[in-house]
Design goal:
Glutaredoxin, four-stranded mixed sheet, 20% strand
């Protein structure tokens, strides 16, 4: 399974939902809390200008935020992305 990284903030409900979705699939992930402006800037650069959280990466592939991974899951495409 590829490394999964999720950029979050503590009070973001979408971050909690994304972590729950991944956790429900027994996916281990690294959580990067972006309270520090430098971490937020690094996330924004890596996520092609996206400043909102969560931002989710599988390996070097940017999946987007919670809505994006939830849509992939509904389409049956998320598991394959996580497995490769």
């Amino acid at each position: 399974m590829k490394k999964v990284e999720i950029y979050t903030t503590p009070t973001c409900p979408y971050c909690h939902a994304a972590k729950a979705l991944l956790g429900g699939k027994n996916v281990a992930f690294e959580e990067i809390v972006v309270l520090d402006p430098d971490l937020r800037a690094a996330m924004t650069q890596r996520a092609n200008g996206q400043r909102t959280v969560p931002q989710i990466f599988v390996g070097d592939t940017h999946l987007g935020g919670y809505d994006d991974i939830a849509a992939l899951d509904r389409q049956g495409k998320l598991d394959a992305l996580l497995a490769n």
